[in-house]
């Protein structure tokens, strides 16, 4: 069945999208070293996934060295990184696509090895996350208790976001998305499991949302608020997150965002929690329960993400709980995902082992439909040649016969051509 609603246009702040299939931010840990600089291979990856009027959100990108938490993630705080990202934005724009940069500070999820001065990572409060960090040398090491960021340091933290947004503008991005989800710095300030402050950045909903809104205003001064989106995961538990009243704090945040004309809010379904995805746990049912819960607080453009299929995306769009849907893992393995969904074509499956780190394998080598069709026609030619050899076929076989031949070959692919029962092929030929 064709899927029309995902393919209707959408006004997204300052931009006009021609369809609603968004590429979710996806960390792939393949920035050039040293310097965490995007390069040609990254530019190819994003250009492959661009489509006319389609929105891509980049992988999370650290706003400063202090904000880094994993090896080989790209940054947006050096002139080399700006030049590297320019390759990416040029490639996407050449295909008529739009691209937002996801601005990231991991807060307590970092490790000393990523810190410029070898100091402890910073966080709203000295609350240690459960689990392990990934060090600069790709080793697991237990998280340490972070140091509480001083009140006097907050303006420079906001300044890091502002500087990163200026760099993103210089690199040619169409907008930025603030990563305020998945247990990273801005999320750590929002939730009371990680924010125990007693100053104006802790305690009440208003105080806990203060840093996010200050950062939003700073970044908005650079790009215009209508080119800024925000990603939230209100019910997510990834990175050891919790809150005593998630509906309270996040409805407060969404109400505050609704008063500003930002480009969009990007909401992650609880089932799209990265831990659940990593462990391959079954998804809960329903088109978009998290979005349905929070929709009443935010009338603007809402992008849903987390475990969507084409069908559940359509359902959520039809119900009005989301206005667009971001796909993550399916975009990793299907560079031409919007086209495939539009044609209701078969999807490539993804290889989890190549998600993080490495080079082109599992990154830029997933086939497009066009590649598959080209190789299919090559396979057909090969089958014809083999059949001519083996049974003296004199002319191009009819389609039905070709189909049968294909099936025989597919079944024998492991045993090789030698295991094909040519008597069966001969018999088939007499029938067609
Ligand atoms: C992610 N996700 C993610 N989210 C985010 O906000 N910034 C990021 O950099 C990443 N990185 C990332 C890497 C990989 C390999 C995966 C699988 C996921 C979460 C992602 O954007 C999305 O919300 C989830 O993948 C759920 O959507 P799907 O995959 O079910 O469509």
Could you name the CATH topology of the largest domain? TIM Barrel
User: What is the correct CATH architecture of the largest domain?
Assistant: Alpha-Beta Barrel
Portion of residues in beta strands equals: 5-15%
Which sheet architecture does the biggest sheet show? 8 strands, parallel
**Mean pLDDT score, rounded?**
91
Order of helices and strands: EEEHEHEEEEEHEHHHEHEHHEHEHHHHH
> What level of helicity do the residues show?
25-40%
Roughly how many Å is the radius of gyration?
25 Å
CATH class of the largest domain: Alpha Beta
Tally of structural domains: 2
Ligand inventory reads: ligand FNR
Q: CATH H level of the largest domain: which superfamily?
A: Aldolase class I
How many H/I helices?
15
Q: End-to-end span in angstroms?
A: 32 Å
Low-confidence stretches: none
Number of distinct beta strands:
14
User: Strand order across the biggest sheet?
Assistant: 3-14-13-12-11-10-5-4
Structural class assignment: alpha/beta
Global shape: elongated
Which terms would index this structure?
432 residues, alpha/beta, TIM Barrel, 2 domains, eight-stranded parallel beta sheet, two-stranded antiparallel sheet, 15 helices, elongated, binds ligand FNR
Protein architecture, described:
With 432 residues, this protein is an alpha/beta fold. 37% of the residues lie in helices and 13% in strands. It has helices spanning 40-49, 79-94, 154-170, 185-190, 205-208, 210-223, 246-258, 274-278, 289-294, 310-319, 329-333, 337-343, 369-391, 399-411, 422-431; strands at 10-12, 15-17, 21-23, 55-62, 98-104, 122-123, 132-134, 140-142, 147-148, 175-180, 228-232, 264-268, 302-305, 324-327. The strands form 4 sheets. The protein has an 8-stranded parallel sheet with strand order 3-14-13-12-11-10-5-4. Helix 1 packs parallel to helix 2 (79-94) and helix 3 packs parallel to helix 6. The longest helix is centred in the C-terminal third of the chain and has 23 residues, at 369-391. The model has no long low-confidence stretch (mean pLDDT 91). The structure holds ligand FNR.
């Amino acid at each position: 069945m064709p899927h029309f609603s995902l393919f209707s246009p959408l006004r997204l702040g300052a931009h006009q999208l021609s369809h609603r299939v968004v590429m979710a931010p996806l960390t792939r840990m393949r920035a050039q070293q040293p310097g965490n600089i995007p390069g040609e291979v990254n530019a190819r990856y994003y250009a492959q996934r661009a489509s006319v009027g389609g929105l891509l959100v980049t992988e999370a990108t650290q706003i400063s060295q202090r904000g880094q938490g994993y090896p080989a993630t790209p940054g947006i705080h050096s002139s080399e990184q700006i030049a590297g990202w320019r390759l990416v934005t040029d490639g996407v724009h050449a295909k008529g696509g739009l691209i937002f940069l996801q601005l990231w500070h991991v807060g307590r999820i970092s490790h000393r090895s990523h810190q410029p001065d070898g100091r402890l990572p910073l966080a709203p409060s000295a609350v240690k996350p459960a689990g392990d960090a990934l060090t600069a040398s790709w080793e697991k090491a237990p998280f340490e208790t972070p140091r509480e960021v001083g009140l006097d340091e907050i303006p420079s933290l906001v300044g890091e976001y502002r500087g990163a947004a200026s760099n993103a503008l210089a690199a040619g991005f169409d907008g930025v998305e603030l990563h305020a989800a998945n247990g990273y710095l801005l999320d750590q300030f929002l939730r009371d499991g990680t924010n125990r402050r007693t100053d104006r950045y802790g305690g009440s909903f208003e105080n806990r949302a203060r840093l996010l809104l200050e950062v939003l205003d700073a970044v908005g001064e650079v790009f215009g608020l209508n080119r800024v989106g925000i990603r939230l995961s209100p019910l997510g538990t990834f990175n050891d997150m919790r809150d005593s009243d998630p509906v309270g704090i996040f409805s407060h945040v969404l109400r505050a965002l609704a008063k500003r004309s930002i480009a969009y809010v990007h909401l992650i379904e609880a089932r799209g929690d990265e831990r659940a995805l990593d462990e391959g746990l079954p998804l809960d049912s329903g088109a978009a329960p998290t979005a349905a819960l929070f929709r009443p607080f935010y009338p603007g453009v809402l992008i849903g993400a987390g475990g969507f299929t084409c069908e559940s995306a359509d359902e959520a769009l039809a119900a009005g709980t989301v206005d667009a849907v971001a796909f993550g893992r399916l975009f990793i393995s299907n560079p031409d995902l919007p086209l495939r969904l539009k044609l209701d074509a078969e999807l490539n499956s993804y290889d989890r082992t190549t998600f993080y780190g490495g080079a082109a394998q599992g990154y830029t080598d997933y086939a497009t439909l066009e590649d598959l069709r080209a190789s299919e026609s090559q396979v057909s030619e090969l089958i014809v040649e083999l059949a001519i050899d083996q049974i003296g076929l004199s002319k191009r076989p009819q389609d039905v016969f070709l189909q049968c031949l294909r099936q025989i070959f597919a079944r024998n692919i492991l045993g090789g051509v030698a295991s094909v029962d040519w008597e069966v092929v001969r018999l088939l030929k007499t029938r067609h």
